[in-house]
């Protein structure tokens, strides 16, 4: 029942077991969880509502309003619908339960856990009367630097699809609509609004579409289009992918939603399958669509079909009979919090454990040093629209202190100065001024230009009291276009005391900040709201010229500029020496490093290297101490070469949510046995990844061809006969498992028969734990080139010490088929196939031959 090993039975354990039992009882499939309370009005009543709507009402209805709502029409009995960001918690209503990032859910390889996370998020959504949660995210992990990898479920389409399917069923079983995103191939964040993901048809169908098809099979209510283009067409207007494949071939009955400000043309979007433009009808509005309908460019029936899809989906969830989801609903706060903890435990991946240094025995050490920028405060999630402010944050330092107990001294040092935490008032109270003759006047001078490069004739010169400007504030003057403009802000700053100061900016899109004509912050790229800061020593009474240059390239407009005294009394370099001193006094060093919401997030791609010179920091600490454990926060792989051989243990913690540090501390001390497996291959060098050579728009033609085709991730490593640093599906445990007796129910099958295989797994170690059985298929001979093997089934099994279980897994026709781009269909060629079973893609332990006629 409970997949996680607890070292000893305590009162807390019994509580968790009771919660786990409760979760089994309440985790009903979507077809039964709330069916008794869902009353539908039927298609005739829906058609009557559509018939009563005026044309203006119809057009207004397919554009969102108030940022996260779908408008209601009380006189027609159509309820207002509320939406919130996901997929790892509710972002829009202040602090909420922060669940592990989706990449960590994928690392659990646990379908029941994905179900429970979807269910728990929906329970909290109901408590806020939220009808639609924006998740799950299933874009495929191609390269580790993609800014939103942490929001997705890894490199394999089957793994992502199965976990998304269960997440959706858990969520929608609570009468909360799920939203699979970002359809399709939004696999990079750089210049995402303008870059086309170009690929051949077979690659599209075998790698990038399957998780969305699995979502449709699960009955997902809504699908969100990506910002990007695919093969030259924006997804919000992609007739082939939206109308023909999604709504046609797959029979998707829900409605398609645009990502926020990802619509680019009214007529193309209306005809291209988009049903609801968010956050407003910026394009699909009366001004654009009324004349298009009159001229016949858009048919009225097309608009009616959008409304029909939306209202029919409402009806499936019973919103016409009861739209208030919090009515008679009581949130079980203990259950949702425990789900976040259980999910964090299951997704931790132990990548290295030299000489079995972990778990730590409490009676073997007296002093522990918890060092690093991510030790305190909490790093629960990546940046961007998925970030959820934790309701119950707990730092790794606090979690280690609590589990270590009174007999172990725990010390702490940040070690790396990453910049003062960004105070909320840094923007509002920054004392910038300009000169009015010889007189100093508070404010900044703004000079506007057409285009992104601050060139040509000046459109406008204006004085603002401060640089806290967004959207309508920047567009207030008619001289400023809605898009494609740049502005230079000039001001001065004089500190009152000599100290380090944080100079900070935030922009959507690009910006850079110069201090006395020297560039100190550079974020000159298309991006969503992105923050950067720099700590600089300034002398009291000295005047500093501050220039911020900004451009807006599309969508929202935002630029902030601020300065404040930093929480720093010495040069940043002194942090390292102080941390080394703390480390030398300890018996064990836990190094908490990695990325955070400011260095990995939406709308930009991150570096492969650790930020803030953390790689050198790990080397320096390791040189002074021979018992170092690294805990890593990141959405994917990074450059480990400088330090991986110098440390004893490595825990891949991803972004583990609000309970994640509790799970890490439990793993370190052996109260939880790690059971996570990598959902993506970890290369040694980023250049080794085949996608690296087909990722960047080097010729600036706004098109990126996925030249690696099918051969990305483990499919490439297998075929190229090259070993990555850590393989797809890899992860260590504190116990050992053996696989035995792989058998199939028969040796010869017809194409439509299900292949059932049995595998016996035994826990041969000293501790209880969980193992993931991974089933791959190899096609012995094919008309088209196929990968060496592909994941087609998996399950996670909990085993007590010495226990063994025989597990049955099923493979259907799809497991043996490939997509034929000549006939434009999936084909199963008769012939011999090999069933491969192991616990990692590079550790196949059993195999069986079958023949399909």
DSSP strand tally: 38
Low-pLDDT residue intervals, each spanning 5 or more residues: 1-33
Kindly state the mean pLDDT as a whole number? 93
Q: What percent of residues adopt helix (DSSP H or I)?
A: 10-25%
* Proportion of strand residues: 25-35%
| Integer-rounded radius of gyration | 28 Å
Broad structural category: alpha/beta
Principal-axes shape call? globular
Reported for the largest beta sheet, the result is: 6 strands, mixed
Major sheet: arrangement of strands: 1-2-3-4-6-9
N-to-C span: 40 Å
Number of helices: 18
Mind sketching the topology for me?
Blueprint: H1 11-26, H2 43-52, H3 55-61, E1 69-70, E2 81-85, H4 102-108, H5 111-127, E3 132-134, H6 157-172, E4 177-183, E5 196-198, H7 201-208, H8 210-217, E6 222-225, E7 229-230, E8 233-234, H9 239-249, E9 255-258, H10 266-271, H11 286-295, H12 300-316, H13 333-347, E10 349-353, E11 367-371, H14 396-404, E12 409-413, E13 433-436, E14 439-442, E15 444-450, E16 458-464, E17 468-470, E18 485-493, E19 499-508, E20 511-515, E21 518-523, E22 530-538, E23 544-552, E24 558-565, H15 573-584, E25 588-594, H16 614-624, E26 628-633, E27 649-652, H17 660-669, E28 703-705, H18 714-720, E29 737-744, E30 748-749, E31 755-763, E32 769-779, E33 790-799, E34 804-811, E35 818-820, E36 825-827, E37 831-838, E38 844-852
């Amino acid at each position: 029942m409970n997949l996680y090993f607890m070292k000893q039975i305590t009162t807390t354990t019994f509580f968790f077991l009771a919660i786990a039992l409760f979760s089994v009882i309440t985790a009903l499939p979507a077809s039964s969880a709330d069916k008794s309370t869902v009353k539908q009005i039927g298609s005739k009543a829906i058609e009557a509502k559509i018939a009563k709507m005026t044309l203006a009402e119809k057009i207004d209805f397919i554009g969102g309003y108030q940022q996260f709502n779908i408008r209601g029409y009380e006189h027609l009995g159509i309820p207002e619908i509320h939406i919130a960001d996901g997929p790892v918690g509710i972002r829009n209503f202040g602090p909420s339960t922060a669940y592990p990032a989706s990449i960590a859910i994928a690392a659990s390889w646990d379908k029941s856990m994905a179900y429970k996370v979807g269910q728990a998020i929906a329970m909290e959504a109901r408590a806020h009367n939220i009808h639609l949660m924006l998740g799950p995210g299933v874009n495929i992990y191609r390269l580790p630097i993609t800014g939103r990898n942490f929001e997705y479920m890894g490199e394999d389409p089957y793994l992502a699809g199965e976990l998304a399917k269960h997440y959706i069923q858990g969520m929608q079983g609570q009468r909360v609509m799920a939203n699979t995103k970002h359809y399709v191939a939004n696999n990079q964040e750089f210049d995402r609004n303008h870059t086309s993901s170009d690929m051949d048809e077979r690659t599209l169908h075998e790698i990038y579409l399957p998780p969305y098809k699995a979502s449709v099979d699960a009955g997902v209510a809504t699908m969100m289009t990506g910002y990007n283009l695919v093969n030259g067409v924006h997804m919000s207007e992609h007739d082939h992918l939206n109308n023909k494949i999604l709504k046609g071939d797959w029979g998707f009955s829900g409605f398609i939603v645009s990502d926020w400000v990802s619509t680019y043309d009214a007529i193309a979007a209306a005809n291209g399958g988009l049903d609801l433009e968010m956050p407003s009808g910026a394009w699909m509005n009366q001004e654009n669509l009324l004349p298009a309908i009159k001229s016949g460019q858009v048919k009225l029936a097309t608009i009616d079909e959008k409304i029909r899809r939306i209202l029919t989906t409402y009806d499936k969830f019973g919103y016409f009979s009861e739209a208030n989801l919090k009515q008679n609903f009581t949130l079980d706060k203990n259950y949702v919090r425990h789900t976040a903890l259980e999910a964090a435990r299951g997704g931790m991946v132990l990548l290295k454990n030299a000489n079995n240094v972990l778990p730590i025995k409490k009676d073997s050490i007296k002093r522990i040093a918890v060092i690093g920028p991510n030790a305190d405060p909490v790093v629960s999630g990546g940046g961007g629209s998925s970030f959820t402010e934790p309701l119950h944050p707990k730092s790794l330092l606090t979690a280690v202190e609590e589990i270590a107990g009174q007999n172990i001294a725990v010390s702490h040092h940040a070690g790396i100065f990453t910049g003062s935490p960004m105070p909320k008032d840094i923007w509002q109270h920054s004392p910038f001024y300009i000169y009015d003759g010889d007189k100093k006047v508070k404010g900044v001078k703004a000079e506007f230009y057409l285009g992104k490069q601050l060139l040509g004739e000046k459109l406008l010169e204006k004085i603002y009291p401060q640089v806290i400007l967004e959207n309508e504030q920047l567009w207030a003057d008619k001289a400023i276009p809605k898009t494609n403009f740049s502005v230079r802000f000039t001001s001065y700053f004089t500190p009152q005391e000599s100290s380090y100061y944080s100079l900070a900016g935030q922009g959507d899109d690009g910006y850079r900040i110069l201090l006395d004509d020297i560039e100190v912050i550079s974020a000159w790229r298309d991006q969503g709201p992105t923050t950067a800061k720099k700590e600089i020593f300034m002398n009291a009474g000295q005047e500093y010229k501050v220039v911020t240059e900004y451009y807006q390239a599309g969508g929202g407009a935002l630029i902030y500029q601020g300065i404040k005294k930093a929480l720093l009394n010495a040069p940043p370099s002194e942090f390292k020496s102080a941390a080394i001193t703390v480390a030398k006094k300890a018996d064990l060093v836990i190094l908490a490093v990695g990325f955070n919401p400011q260095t990995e997030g939406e709308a930009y791609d991150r570096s492969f290297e650790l930020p803030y010179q953390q790689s050198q920091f790990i080397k320096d600490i390791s040189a002074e101490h021979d018992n170092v454990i690294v805990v890593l926060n990141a959405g994917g792989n990074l450059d480990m070469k400088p330090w991986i051989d110098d440390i004893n243990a490595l825990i891949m913690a991803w972004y583990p949510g609000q309970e994640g540090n509790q799970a890490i501390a439990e793993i370190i001390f052996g109260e939880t046995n790690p059971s996570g497996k990598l959902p993506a291959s970890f290369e040694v060098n980023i250049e080794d990844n085949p996608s690296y050579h087909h990722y960047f728009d080097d010729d600036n033609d706004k098109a990126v061809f996925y030249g690696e085709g099918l051969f990305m991730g483990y499919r490439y490593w297998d075929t190229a006969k090259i070993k990555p640093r850590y393989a797809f599906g890899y992860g260590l445990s504190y116990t050992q498992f053996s696989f035995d007796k792989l058998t199939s129910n028969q040796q010869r099958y017809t194409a439509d028969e299900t292949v059932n295989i049995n595998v016996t797994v035994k826990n041969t170690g000293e501790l209880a734990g969980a193992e993931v059985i991974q089933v791959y298929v190899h096609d012995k001979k094919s008309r088209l080139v196929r990968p060496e093997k592909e994941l087609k089934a998996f399950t996670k099994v909990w085993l007590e010490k010495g226990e063994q279980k025989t597990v049955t897994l099923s493979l259907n026709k799809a497991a043996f088929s490939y997509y034929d781009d000549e006939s434009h269909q999936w084909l199963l060629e008769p012939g011999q196939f090999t069933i491969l079973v192991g616990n990692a893609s590079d550790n196949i332990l059993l195999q069986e031959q079958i023949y399909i006629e």
